[in-house]
Amino acid sequence: MAFQSALSDKIPLVIYVIAMGVSGLIIAFIKGWLLALVLLGDFPLVIASVYLCMYNIQTRGKREDKNYIIAGGRAEQALAAIKTVKMLNGEEFESKMYDDCLKDGSKGSVKFGVIAGISMGAAFFAMLAAYSLGFWFGANCISAT
Fold this sequence. Notes:
Number of strands: 0
Shape: elongated
Oligomer: single chain
Largest sheet: none
Order of helices and strands: HHHHH
Helix content: over 70%
Distance between the termini: 60 Å
Structural class: mainly alpha
């Protein structure tokens, strides 16, 4: 039952997206085959850049979650034994350990932000380059006729 409920929304969506893509390509080749062929050449660049962007965000995001889970576990452990920590004067030690965990997480977060920004920028650059190629080539085709 859980398997069916997990896939029940996704299968029609995949069929819908494939049908829209195929019908869009058919209409594009019927209406303007030369422009469609030129823009289809840019399609692998767009797909590759979007894939790399999503891959980087997913893998780095999991790593960052892991770092913050470790820091949260450290804080939870100290709070669960707060009486012992207080009796042994371990507040500063536990605070330092928690801060160290957060520093590791923040270094990774900054790196994640830079990589995510660069990959997102590359994806948007590829899409906008495809738009500009289409406008430029279409304008040249119109001025040539």
